[in-house]
TrEMBL record:
Protein name: Citrate synthase
InterPro entries xrefs: Citrate_synth-like_lrg_a-sub, Citrate_synth-like_sm_a-sub, Citrate_synthase, Citrate_synthase_AS, Citrate_synthase_bac-typ, Citrate_synthase_sf, Citrate_synthase_typ-I
Gene Ontology MF terms in the entry: citrate synthase activity
UniProt superkingdom: Bacteria
Alphabetized PANTHER family for the sequence: CITRATE SYNTHASE
Pathway in which this enzyme or protein is active: Carbohydrate metabolism; tricarboxylic acid cycle; isocitrate from oxaloacetate: step 1/2
Catalytic activity: oxaloacetate + acetyl-CoA + H2O = citrate + CoA + H(+)
Keyword Acyltransferase: yes
Origin species: Nocardioides vastitatis
Amino acid sequence: MTDSLTVRDNRTGAEYEIPIVDGTIRAADLGQIKTADDQPGLATYDPGFVNTASCRSAITYIDGEKGILEYRGYPIEQLAEHSNFLEVAYLLIHGDLPTREQYDQWVHEITFHTFVHENVKGFMQGFRYDAHPMGMLMASVGALSTFYPESRHIEDPDNRHIQIVRMIAKMPTLGAWSFRHAQGKPYIYPDNELSYSENFLSMLFKMSEAKYAADPRIAKALDVLFILHADHEQNCSTNAVRSVGSSQVDPYSAVAAGIGALFGPLHGGANEAVLKMLRRIGSKENIPGFIEGVKNGEERLMGFGHRVYKNYDPRAKIIKKACDDVFEVTGVNPLLEVAQELEKIALEDEYFVKRKLYPNVDFYSGLIYEALEFPPEMFTVLFAIGRTPGWLAQWLELVQDKDQKIARPKQIYTGARTLDFVPAEKRWA
Ligand SMILES: CC(C)(COP(=O)(O)OP(=O)(O)OC[C@H]1O[C@@H](n2cnc3c(N)ncnc32)[C@H](O)[C@@H]1OP(=O)(O)O)[C@@H](O)C(=O)NCCC(=O)NCCS
């Protein structure tokens, strides 16, 4: 067997042999296929990168057909059950599990960088009363680059490390403050005696009490949700981080771009859309009519389907378990019944079966977030906090990858050519 592809160009009859490495050909190798020397070489057309690898990566492995997700080789199920978010963050960033000393040092560093410059608070307070927290988060993460101008020295490993620590540490602070903002409540400073998710809950919900004591089951469920969202290889927001990062900008600006991508309803905004959909359906009797509408193409069943998973999203299974833990504390969310029935019907329906549409991570996460009394606008902020170590691990891999270049896709130009410009005063005469 030869690891190559023989291509015959029927326009010219010429044959080319293109090497196959790791199941891919280099798109640039197609450039030699031309009808004449002065003609452009053959290119591929791939909107949405559905079959184009943009990098080599050793961070996250997904087998969408089998429903497998692994971070640095460790199955998501084991990490969700036995690890915690900061250990998973360490694993993603460093590539390996920490020793006890490394873990303690890492947790210490993250815990002691949770405070932000007081001026950050000042400008966050300047947002309109009804500002979307994702807009606030995106802007404030971008603004951090102005507080840490040395973050531009991305070639310096120590400098990269401190910015990574800062971002993982400060994200809950910024996320919680954007939540408090909409409620007109004072921003709560971090409490460095608390764990990562307990501290986040404290900054979200603390009022006049001296110390906020989160229910450990809620803190644990939130930690698991962060783990489940921590990375997902080359998804839209990670691609945004890598694409922007490929210009060698500082990591705050690159992550701010990722937050922007995550904001969209087809990506991180889907759990908000799921909840709105469940509310609209309201009760089990309305499900058949709704499903008919989806099948007629009038709308989508939000929280179903995935570009990569053509099987049950492994994260959705773990979230279902977290639902039970959270509802034990908060009482059952009445929309759970609608969601479960919707899932049951969809999994048996020919339309969904044929297209391999299964529940994804967003299908149940919104129900948990709502039970925790988060308004839907906050759901994507929670996703962003969880995804931060993944974005940063991917950014770190990018900036150290000698193969990488500034992202600059090709286009197929379809517009007009060589028109003669007529000045406005003549056109409008
Ligand atoms: C996630 C998503 C954007 C992936 O899209 P994609 O890989 O581009 O898949 P396509 O849009 O090409 O869908 C393939 C087919 O399944 C259908 N389909 C995909 N997701 C669907 C959904 N949620 N409800 C109904 N039909 C759906 C499409 O209409 C298409 O059908 P067709 O072949 O008859 O045209 C898409 O499944 C979706 O919009 N899901 C809902 C939003 C969501 O939950 N996003 C969160 C992802 S974590």
